[in-house]
Amino acid sequence: MYAMDALDALRSIPDGSVALALTSPPYALEYQKEYGNTAKGEYIDWLRPFAVEIVRVLADDGSFVLNIGGSYEKGKPTRSLYHFKVLLMLCEEVGFSLAQECFWFNPAKLPAPAEWVNVRRIRIKDSVEYVFWLSKGPFPKADNKQVLAEYSADMKRLLERGYRPTLRPSGHNITHKFQNDHGGSIPANLIEAGNNDSNGAYMTRCRDAGVKPHPARFPPALPDFFIRLLTTERDLVIDPFSGSNTTGRVAEDLGRRWLGFDLVGEYVLASRFRFEDAEIVSASLLGPEERSASLAMIENAA
Questions:
Q1: CA distances (Å), 87 to each of 67, 152, 188, 258, 301, in order?
Q2: Tens digit of pLDDT for each residue in 115-125?
Q3: Domain with 20 in it: what CATH number?
Q4: CB 134 within 8 A of CB 64
């Protein structure tokens, strides 16, 4: 992970060398955050040059996974459309394809904005964020067998007792293949993951060291799901807006090569705490020449 401007870093990465770009950039919120966030009216123009570089560095079968939260219009109980405008820009201007819309459900998310949800009680708690799975081409590398979910209790009973083929009222023809045990069920595009880890190793070490942790961290379950789904061992994963570097740690654990960038040096230094208990495996996957070339690529840009 490097303390540098992500746009400069992306411009130093060779064409077609990245399997997955996975990131959660600062959202276009009404209130300024300490890590910096661009206003809604300027957000499209701010994000576009990053997207242009990301599509260039992706392999032909590579993917771009973008977690982006919605927000309300200033002073109104109505929602902004900025994240949909972002999606249209990425597809219609930059050239990405929308592989699938996914959603991150955070059951621990606090009710907000307080004025409309807690005070006037005219809106409900917003607990879902968009995760746009974009691809460079129409057939990105993907394997849903790598992210199978545990079978439900009902499905386990069907596998044990057997299932009689039938034609459902909906028109679906359920054949005998339905009772084959594939090791788990195909996951939904709704990923449930709480984000209230205030006492985890990263937060604890930041407090002990007197270092300010990154205030907007997504849970490891999010990058874990997409890295498993969209990459294989040795693939290169990048996170242009790394923050506390959750993506890098998960990629490390899964045996992927990774690069991360953030403008704030303090966040980059604090990200080391994520690796204190890690079993480092990625470095062993690189030969000396490959490792040196990877480091030189970024160091020259810096």
A1: 11, 34, 21, 25, 29
A2: 999 999 999 99
A3: 3.40.50.150
A4: yes
